[in-house]
Design goal:
Strand content: 35-45%
Helix content: under 10%
Signal peptide: 1-25
Pfam family, one: Cu-oxidase_2
Family: Belongs to the multicopper oxidase family.
Domain Plastocyanin-like: 62-164, 350-459
Structural class: mainly beta
Protein name: Multicopper oxidase domain-containing protein
Bound molecules: CU-O-CU linkage, copper (II) ion
Strand order of the largest sheet: 16-15-12-18-23-20-21
Distance between the termini: 35 Å
Number of strands: 34
Radius of gyration: 21 Å
């Protein structure tokens, strides 16, 4: 795949629409005028000590956007399981931020949460061994109280983990394995409007959809089957994605890895932070629109009321035959809690968890390394979601019912409609650190910024009662 050639075409598709973007309040049908931008694969080097190293520069772009190694969004980082990676994250923004590896299983000091602040002008260099199943993960800033603005400006990118010997799924990046980063924006005369990130109950709900930073996008496909890696990187909006003709496709992966077997579906709901990988089949010469059709358009308690066209898929006149979809995908086995597994309960209210606001100095939960626990999330109000750093979980039930097959795979984020209850079987990792916490929180970014977040540490089993529940102010690690 020729990135250089494609990129030069693309910069027009990305920036042109920004300059001519509309700011109307109504949802307009799209004209599909712009070729979908495919984020370039991030270049890497092998350091003398064997680490694969990447350089990510967080920098201001044009028209109010921020980007990573560019004006808006970031490159796609792609690594293999087992590789040791090192990231040089340089903050060229006018203020402090962080870069969090959402979905990565790694030591807390490398996690890029609110405790790993990167001052303006500084470089943070976390490193770790990638040891987790194939997955579509991503990265975005996580500064205390400012995540909504930083992500909305455009700081986000994909981080793909491949596992050698995986199933025969379409995997030619940008050709039959196409990332779709879905975000809603508000534009005014081609400039990003950043003011309303804190508006209302849910925060910013934009009227203009960008896919990979492209407004009004189309994509040409050249194979009979195409894998789309969906990432909802919106501040708060939930999408219910499918094709305009309601054709069936197959879900092959969730947040934290592949499913056991493909799950047929014609709509999938995806809330902020979640990833869903689908494989769809196309006939030569056809066009079909990918869209989002809200389920609860009359219900102001769910941030998903609007319908959007997302992307026109244009199939070439002749398509290269894809391998048949494998029956078994080899995804991780479901997490099964052992008898007597510890149960922790989390009640979500307007912007609190268990009646408390986020406190960077307070450790809320202490978890023994390698534990398998049941986390019960009880939503007492309007819609939220719940994300846990560092873990993979299996959804045991939603309102007492098993989840739909497409949500049965390994996950790290779960959507909770108004008043929903979910039970999760959570497998924790083995990187211990009693003084550096991981986060759990609502991934509707306004809620997260308002304090709907808690902190947990992973410690050596048997030492839980010895762990201090407060950590010193200004306890920051700069890697
Ligand atoms: Cu996507 Cu705590 O984050
Ligand atoms: Cu919330």
């Amino acid at each position: 795949m020729d990135f250089v050639k494609r990129r030069s075409l693309l910069s027009l598709a990305v920036l042109g629409p920004l300059l001519s973007g509309c700011s109307g309040a109504d949802v307009q049908p799209l004209t599909f005028a712009n070729r979908l931008h495919i984020p370039p694969l991030a270049p890497s080097e092998i350091d003398p000590d064997g680490f694969r190293s990447f350089a990510l520069n967080l920098q201001p772009g044009k028209n109010g956007t921020w980007g990573i190694n560019g004006d808006h969004l970031g490159p796609t980082v792609r690594v293999k399981r087992g590789e040791r990676v090192r990231m040089a994250v340089t903050n060229r923004l006018p203020e402090a931020t962080t870069l969090h590896w959402h979905g990565m299983r790694l030591p807390a000091r490398m996690d890029g949460g609110p405790h790993q602040s990167i001052e303006s002008g500084a470089t943070w260099t976390p490193q770790w061994t990638v040891d987790q199943p194939a997955a579509t993960t991503w990265f975005h800033p996580h500064p205390h109280g400012k995540t909504a603005t930083h992500v909305y400006r455009g700081l986000a990118g994909l981080f793909l983990v491949d596992e050698p010997g995986g199933p025969a799924l379409p995997s030619d990046y940008g050709v039959d394995d196409i990332p779709l980063i879905v975000q809603d924006k508000i534009l005014d005369n081609g400039r990003l409007v950043t003011g309303p990130v804190d508006n209302g109950t849910f925060g910013l709900l934009g009227d203009t959809i960008m896919i990979n930073g492209t407004i009004d996008p189309y994509v040409e496909v050249t194979t009979t089957q195409v894998r789309f890696r969906l990432l909802n990187a919106s501040n708060t909006r939930v999408y219910r994605i499918g094709f305009a003709d309601n054709r069936t496709f197959h879900v092959v992966g969730g947040d934290a890895g592949l499913l056991r077997e493909p799950a047929p579906a014609d709509r999938v709901k995806i809330s902020p932070g979640e990833r869903i990988e689908i494989v769809a089949a196309f006939s030569p010469g056809e066009t079909v629109v990918l869209n989002s059709i809200g389920e609860n358009r009359r219900d102001a308690n769910d941030p998903e009321e609007d319908d959007f066209e997302l992307l026109k898929v244009v199939a070439a006149a002749s398509l290269k035959p894809s391998k048949p979809l494998p029956r078994a995908l080899g995804g991780p086995a479901p997490v099964i809690p052992p008898p007597g597994a510890r149960v922790r309960r989390f009640a979500l209210s307007g912007s609190e968890i268990n009646g408390r606001d986020m406190d960077m100095n307070r450790i809320d939960e202490v978890v023994p390394a390698g534990a398998v626990e049941i986390w019960e999330i009880d939503n007492t109000t309007y819609a939220h979601n719940f994300h846990i750093h560092e873990v993979a979980f299996t959804i045991l039930d939603i309102n007492g019912e098993p989840p739909p097959a497409y949500l049965a795979g390994p996950k790290d984020t779960v959507f909770l409609k108004k008043h929903a209850d979910v039970r999760l079987a959570v497998r924790f990792g083995r990187h211990t650190d009693p003084v550096t916490p991981y986060m759990y929180h609502c991934h509707l970014l306004r809620h997260e910024d308002k304090g709907m977040m808690g902190q947990f540490v992973i410690v050596d089993p048997g030492t839980e009662h010895l762990i201090p529940r407060t950590i010193p102010t200004g306890h920051h690690h700069h890697g």
